[in-house]
UniProtKB/TrEMBL annotation:
Keywords, ordered alphabetically: DNA-binding
InterPro entries: SpoVT-AbrB_dom (IPR007159), SpoVT-AbrB_sf (IPR037914)
SpoVT-AbrB domain segment(s): 6-49
SMART domains: SpoVT_AbrB
The species this protein was found in: Loigolactobacillus binensis
Single GO MF descriptor: DNA binding
UniProt name for this protein: AbrB/MazE/SpoVT family DNA-binding domain-containing protein
Domain of life: Bacteria
Amino acid sequence: MKVKVRTVGNANILTIPKAFNVTPGTEFEVEQQSDGDGMIVFKPRHRNPFEGNWFNTDLKQIDITLERAELGHEWH
């Protein structure tokens, strides 16, 4: 697959085809290889599990005692 760099304002833009299924807003670390071929590598940034307030909205907490009672098990 071939893509082409285009200029928008003061930035050069390299598009990512939809076929790659990259979610809009995904952040990448970018580096240019220094081995002479000028390869540019984009690595998706992974969320730091210790940053932010994500745990208040991403986790669904359940009461395991209710779940076990529904299955007919009792706690001893």
